Amino acid sequence: MQISDQSEIAVAKSLNTAPELLAELARHKDIKVRQAVARNPHTPTYTLFLLAEEFPQDFLHNPIFPTLDLENPESVIPGSSLQTILACDDAPQEWLHRFAISGYHYHLVGIVQNPQVSKQVLELAVENPSGDAFIHELIKMHVNIAGEMDSCWQEYAENKLPQIIAASFSDFAAVGCYSRNHSQGHYYQFILWQLGITPDLQLKQTSEYVQTAIAKSSETPPAYLRQFLNTKFKITTLIEVAKNKNTPLECLIELADHRSRLIREATMLNPSLPRSIVNDFFQERFLATHPHTQVEKLRELCQSKWSFIRWQVAKHPNLELSDLKTLAQSSDWRVRECVAGHPGADLDILQKLTQDKSVRVRQAVALNSQTPPECLERLSGDRNISVQANVAKNPHTPLDILLLLYQNQDRRILQKLAYNPGLPQELQQQLQLHFPQTKPHNIYLHWRLFSEPYSYEGTQIEEIHQQEQHALATSAMTPIPQLLEILRITPVDIYWEAVRNICQQVVCNPELSSEILLEILDIRSVDVYAAVASHPHISDAVCERIAKFKEYRLRLLMLQNPNISPAFIEKSLYDKRAEVRQYALKIYQEKFANTSNFILQYNEAIDENTPLPKLAELANHKSVLIREAVAKNPRIIEAYSSPKSKSCLEKLAQDKNQLVQLAITNNINAPIHILEKLANNHQYDHYEYIVYSRGHKRKEHKVFIAAVKRLIQIAPTIASKYLANFIEPRFYSLDTIPFRLALLQHPAAPIEYLAQNLQKLRSFPWYERYVISQHPQITTEILQFLLQDANRVVRAAAKARLNQKLQQHVKIK
């Protein structure tokens, strides 16, 4: 509990204090200062209205209250404050009567939670159309309607709580809550989960924001990351799973075969995915795209564990008809799509795929030059307009079918017909007037190559036949210099094929020179950089170029390269990313053992027998790794009584690098007051996070979480004051109900804070007040307040707990 600054309380009470200063003091962190402001008649009116939510009694007893123009309080007082006032014992009777008749749902919630409200007013509230089943249930359970409850209260509450938790995900009326958190507000749930307070998160029932936060977190257990593969999640979330170092290997292998290119490529960059698997993938891709791959090998690749490879094989011109027939029966529509567009597909295959359930497969059949007229006729009447449009585009479609499609008059079909050479020239020219051919797109080379200057005009795509471009971009025979030239002149889809081809050639050709590798790094592609980072001919110049790229996982890939230079490893010991530093340390220890001065110093930092003066000296080392090691050393804290150790520890707790601070919090001997200091310095304010989320640095919360989590384990009473912010009524929303209940039942629940803010309890729903009454650390003061509660269940529970406490007190005496 914080000791109040008496001078600030005096200023808040003084009638001579300027209104501007009172408005500023209304945001003071000390509750007694804020309460004094709520009582001061010179406090600005709007500030008073805001403070009424926290101090309704003081607001009502403020000398200025009778003079306020409150003929229509709903129009001037914020809704949350008005609800608290209506729940207050001293709420004006005329307000209770008025809002019982014409008030909205949140007004009724305040009224039915007021223990002094009359039976007559409650009966009026029953007739209010804004009342729902939840309000009616509260009215039935009001002591002024149903009287005291001497038995069965516990059974009623214990049956209701599971229903409320279940309903909190969907049924607004069952829990009396008509608001739902959105966007960054969901970070509230994530913080409580990280603190270990709330039960396991149900990923399907959490918001997209929380799902992405879990997928990103380096602290997320593998079991959670594995769940992401069993359910449909947004691609952006799965990309974060693919990047996470904790994602299990079997999940990475599955993600590397995902239908999304972005997910596949993110997975290939994950340092936890063995390079041998990546190499196997590219080796198979090399064979699947090589024009001279033998039929036997292609047949073997048809059974590849990578679906992406099977798609590539299904396009290969050397495939025999028997293989195409096998692939045409694949359960993967992408494989069937490739077969449907294959020039070697026979009549039997095309007839079957004409009736395929996948639109993409039927589209491919409609474009195939080998598709017979009877199939094209069938597809011209397809239920999907894009299939019909492909029939209109196919230059081998018979004239009678083209004329039939012309009668459709659909814009998408007419655009394709306009440039079909099979259509009569007069009709073709007529359509081209309405649908002029678009000019080639411009290419902005600075988006593709680092060496190109920024240009607004861009470069027009060269008018080369796209099939020819595509064949060059995908062929394993196309040399890298030619592929680099293709990047300058081709559309986006072909550009990406060329980039993937370059990656493939880098992985599959260990003989590439360091000069060509350096030239390849001109491409603006993290995937190309990843391929080069693992190449055996990596040079210092290549390392320097890759290290400038922001993606830290590239530096991890380089450290995994056995041909990396010792100078780069040593430089990586000071990398700004912790993951890179830790991996560099591991490699450095393996290569240089005790021959390096850095390793000798690091070993001293972790050794519990190192003298304190030496540890104090190492605590000032420029390397974060060594300062972290000192912060983790139990001796630095065990010898805390030593002045030198004390000052050293204080200094480490204020280190500019948060990882050193985190090391202090994770030290098993960390003193409570140091943990408190770290929690205070990185205090998490959920309200500030929601309102000012863009200016907030989420990484700062890591120290707060680590410090409070440690305090919860060793000093839950002290930890409770840091959790008070999480039970503010303003954070009561549909998707936070299970989390709030878990917090209120936790040993570190902020009971002392509630004792200082008894009036706030009226803003809590009845089931939260009931849970509070059952808390092991509940105070007599809170129980006596709950004895006057409006809800008969809460009232009975408080009475039983108070009697129990009295009996325990008597036994102790």
Structural features:
813 residues; mainly alpha; two-stranded antiparallel ribbon; 56 helices; 59% helix
In the sheet with the most strands, the strands line up as 1-2
Main β sheet profile? 2 strands, antiparallel
Which segments are poorly predicted (pLDDT under 50) over 5 or more consecutive residues? 689-697
Structural class computed from helices and strand pairing:
mainly alpha
Q: Give the termini separation.
A: 28 Å
The proportion of residues forming helix, as a percent range, comes to 55-70%
Task: Tell me the β content.
Answer: under 5%
Number of strands: 2
| Secondary structure tally, helices | 56
Shape: globular
Q: Report the mean per-residue pLDDT as an integer.
A: 87
C-alpha Rg (nearest Å): 35 Å
Description:
This protein has 813 residues and is mainly α. Among the domains are: 1-68, no CATH class; 69-177 and 787-813, no CATH class; 183-275; 281-319, no CATH class; 321-434, Leucine-rich Repeat Variant (Alpha Horseshoe); 439-509, no CATH class. 59% of the residues lie in helices and 0% in strands. It has 56 helices and two strands. Helix 23 (307-315) runs parallel beside helix 25 (333-340), helix 27 (359-367) runs parallel beside helix 29 and helix 44 runs parallel beside helix 47 (658-665). 39% of the residues are buried.
